[in-house]
């Protein structure tokens, strides 16, 4: 199977975080992952009221779903991040860049007015295995 490849042009703004302008997905099985928030899988409760801990747990939860689908974090071609306050953009970028391998997937970040269980962060992904 071929690896994903990154599309970049200087005629559009460069990425301002750990993501690519666009990604060409390899041929394979496409899996659409539902959003994950920072819930402890054992208790169903948020792991913390802090954005960094919630983001780390949400990415951990997403990682387990990717593994269950037969993939790895390298298989991510698109992420969508949801935050309740864009001031947390830097924290989320830091967490993401420490966990997601390069080349980074395409990504969107959206500020929302609320998330389930009062979460501060949610992540969803598209992977190709």
From TrEMBL:
SUPFAM superfamilies: YjgF-like (SSF55298). Pfam families: Ribonuc_L-PSP. One of its GO terms (cellular component) is cytosol. GO terms for molecular function: deaminase activity. InterPro entries: RidA (IPR006056), RutC-like_sf (IPR035959), YjgF/YER057c/UK114 (IPR006175). Belongs to the RutC family. This is RidA family protein. It comes from Pelistega ratti.
